[in-house]
Write a structure and sequence with these properties.
The protein is α/β, with parallel strands linked by helices and 275 residues long. It has 8 helices and 8 strands. Strands 1, 2, 3, 4, 5, 6, 7 and 8 form an 8-stranded mixed β-sheet that branches. A hairpin with a 2-residue loop joins strand 5 and strand 6. Helix 1 runs antiparallel to helix 3 and helix 1 packs parallel to helix 7. The longest helix is centred in the last third of the chain and has 17 residues. The protein is globular and about 50 Å long.
């Protein structure tokens, strides 16, 4: 039984993905394939690379998005996306899709021709950074003739990439889309973020029905895409939402034992990532 795990974009809200992964493992659900966009691409890559949920959480806690050294110079963005290369490589020392324990699909948007690019082989870290380059804040990433931004611009919930590979799909969607009040749109960044969510929700909601298990953490609208101060709360919200979804699961999702997962992927899920 092949299980796909789809992780949406959502900025720092992507920490909720980590809580969902923790809950899925407690129910012996392990992915045979992973697809992700933006923050989901980052979490997905770390998980596919063999990191535990604790190590993925450590990555987010140790990432200084707005450090002065990360500011972009002569690039169209406030933050130089490629400045995070070394930090990500410390968790993914082999910069290659081929080094991953689990097949991974990452989406990014090519600004030059307006097309969606799906990365699944070759160099790993630049495609991840490209997928996470939220326009307006993070500078686009130049890579192999393309100029890439956030994959969520065209595909924020890449369920479609796993349908032909997997027997069942678990989707984790961490973007909010509730009705808002004018009082919540006081600043330009609030308006920009709201417009972004309206854009991606139009094509995303149709994909929910393709998930055998859909996890949608509550209260996501309370948290900014870029604030790191609520990481522990986001982790718990993702975990709680996953546990609730799993408890109400009508047995459409089949469990995978650790032995089956290890045999399928060729490694021990408890293998430490770092020396």
């Amino acid at each position: 039984m092949k299980t796909g795990l789809v992780l949406s974009g959502g900025g720092v809200r992507g920490v909720a993905h980590i809580g969902a992964i923790k809950a899925l493992e407690e129910y012996n659900i392990y992915p045979s394939h992973i697809s992700g966009t933006s923050a989901g691409a980052v979490v997905g890559a770390l998980y596919a690379g063999g990191c535990t949920w604790e190590q993925i959480l450590d990555f987010f806690k140790s990432t200084q998005i707005f450090s002065f050294t990360n500011y972009a110079r002569s690039k169209p963005g406030f933050v130089d996306t490629e400045k995070f290369y070394d930090h990500l490589k410390s968790y993914l020392p082999k910069d290659s899709f081929a080094s991953l324990k689990t097949p991974l699909f990452v989406t990014a948007t090519n600004l030059l021709d307006g097309t969606l690019k799906v990365f699944q082989k070759g160099e790993l870290i630049k495609p991840i950074l490209a997928s996470a380059a939220v326009p307006g804040l993070f500078a686009p990433v130049s890579f192999k003739g393309g100029y890439y931004i956030d994959g969520g611009t065209l595909n924020n919930f890449p369920v479609d990439l796993l349908k032909i590979h997997c027997d069942q799909i678990v989707g984790v969607y961490v973007n909010p889309f509730e009705k808002m009040n004018i009082a919540d749109l006081k600043h330009a960044h609030n308006v920009l973020e709201r417009a972004y969510h309206i854009m991606v929700a139009n094509e995303t909601i149709l994909k929910f029905e393709d998930c055998d298990l859909l996890i949608r953490p509550e209260r996501m609208a309370e948290f900014s895409m870029f604030s790191l101060k609520n990481i522990d709360i986001l982790l718990e919200l993702g975990y709680s939402a996953a546990i609730t979804a799993l408890k109400s699961n009508d047995q459409r999702i089949k469990l995978t034992s650790e032995a089956e997962f290890e045999a399928m992927n060729g490694f021990c899920i408890n293998e430490p990532k770092f020396s």
